[in-house]
Amino acid sequence: MTRRHSWWLWGLAAACAALLGFWVARQVDSSAPQLASGTWFPSSRPIGALALTAHTGRAFGTADLQGHPTLVFFGFTHCPDVCPTTLVKLAQVKKSGALPDMRVLFVSVDPGRDTPAVLAAYVHAFDPDFIGATGDAAEIARLAQRFGVAVARVELPGGDYAMDHSAAVFLLDRRGEIVAVFTPPFDVAPFAADLRLIAARLHG
Predict the structure, then answer these.
(1) What is the pLDDT, as a whole number, of residue 3?
(2) Are residues 64 and 79 in the same domain?
(3) Which residues on neighbouring strands pair with residue 49, listed in sequence order?
(4) End-to-end CA distance of the chain, in Å?
(5) Enclosing domain of residue 54
(6) 3-state helix, strand, coil in the chain (%, to 5)
(7) In whole angstroms, how far apart are CA 21 and each of 8, 14, 149?
(8) Is residue 1 located within the same domain as residue 77?
(9) For residue 164, how many other CB atoms are within 10 A of its CB?
């Protein structure tokens, strides 16, 4: 075999390997659920240890996110529009039964005002099974960063303030890892359809 012929065969083998890799990647991608209102992640994303306080006043840690699929939304109880609107939609999605035994977790980005008692009254106004959680500012900032949620305090006239924050909703699997993200505007019907589509993937 000549040197030139050898290089040609190596080139052909490399091209075939590249085409095979491309085909495999396409097959893997095509197996992922195509969501109408969100994005399924190629691999789950652990969120690490948690040191939060639930609306009940009890500690809320990583183990509390395991065993059930969970929708997670970051917000604050003084939010005038985005938070209550989103929580109404999440209550409707939960009521649809699209994802059996699903829970909804509302994480406050305003720990200075959102005490456990305040959170309890707020989240239960939308659904009696909703979970509210808060924590110290450092823990909330760490958790928001892990989820990719932007949070900023905005000073208002008269000494009051608001909290700017991302409005995405995250889906955790039964291990408590992020597997999908949903972005506004939220329409209940396609959101519920997406959850039905991926329910089998969250089984077990």
Answers:
(1) 43
(2) yes
(3) none
(4) 55
(5) 38-202
(6) 40, 25, 35
(7) 20, 10, 34
(8) no
(9) 11
